[in-house]
Write a structure and sequence with these properties.
By secondary structure, the protein is α/β, with parallel strands linked by helices. The chain has nine helices and 14 strands. The strands form three sheets. It has a six-stranded mixed beta sheet, sandwiched between helices. Helix 2 packs parallel to helix 9. It starts with a strand and ends in a 5-residue tail after the last helix.
């Protein structure tokens, strides 16, 4: 069971649905792995699940970092010169009036040099391991991605970073967030790596998602669910439609799948 977080599992106030915990117990009792799949960093995702966090699998940073029970399965980084070039381009754009903030996402931590209150309010939701540094050019880490928050909407930043397509991949991951990642990195490729590590096939996989960064996952699971609030392209790619995140659609579907499995163990 692979599940996006924002717009999918979390409610409209970005809270965890309380009914999830007994369902996680039920999945574990049946030997079914549960994996959050998000643009959020690994440390943030693990913290959201508290004591259960160490026992879950994760697709973090939109597929750039995959972890199974605390052990790295795969990671895909950006070369340092490219990170510097993207940061320079974003600074220039901000200097021309773009209302944006930049997060350089490393394996150890995320890094920001802008400490504007409005920007930091957005960043703290997604990055538990976060360092404020005087200059992003001097950060030393293994870089997984660059995340940009655009207060005016993600499309403008995505278009401005189009020149980096090829050496990097520019992805709109939310209405305001844009991610710059290594070529070929996406949640679908990450899911393939996790499936190999767990030992399951697409026929044994269910995925849930709502936005464009979930699109590739839909092609790697026979039980693919787009939320009722999903982007039209995600709905078109998914085989099934789940109720919206406001209606706890993931939980509704999981209960139905578990009931079906209890009635017919060969269903798995």
């Amino acid at each position: 069971m692979v599940c996006d977080m924002d717009g999918t599992l979390l409610d409209q106030d970005k809270r965890m649905p309380p009914g999830l915990w007994p369902l996680l117990d039920a999945l574990e009792a049946r030997g079914i792995a549960f994996a959050p799949a998000s643009g959020r960093q690994y440390a943030t995702l693990a913290a959201l699940f508290g004591e259960r966090g160490a026992h879950l699998d994760y697709i973090a940073e939109n597929g750039a970092y995959v972890v199974k029970h605390g052990e790295e399965v795969s990671s895909s980084g950006l070369p340092e010169p490219l990170v510097r070039d993207v940061v320079t381009a974003l600074r220039a754009r901000a200097g021309h009036g773009a209302d944006t903030g930049t997060v350089v996402c490393g394996k150890r931590s995320a890094y920001v040099e802008c400490t504007d209150d409005a920007f930091m309010d957005k960043v703290r939701h997604y990055y538990k391991a976060l360092e404020v540094v005087p200059d992003l050019d001097h950060v030393e880490d293994q870089f997984l991605k660059i995340a940009v928050y655009d207060f005016d909407g993600a499309e403008g930043t995505a278009e401005a970073l189009g020149a980096f397509e090829g050496p990097a991949r520019v992805v709109v991951s939310d209405h305001h967030w844009v991610d710059v990642m290594a070529p070929g990195v996406n949640k679908g490729i990450a899911l393939e790596a996790l499936q190999r590590a767990v030992g399951v096939t697409p026929a044994q996989t269910a995925v849930f998602g709502d936005f464009l960064n979930d699109l590739e996952m839909m092609h790697h699971a026979e039980l693919s669910f787009a939320m009722a609030n999903a982007h039209p392209d995600v709905k078109a790619a998914a085989r099934h439609l789940a109720p919206s995140n406001a209606e706890q659609g993931v939980l509704v579907v999981l209960r139905a799948l578990l009931e079906r499995l209890d009635q017919d163990p060969t269903y798995a």
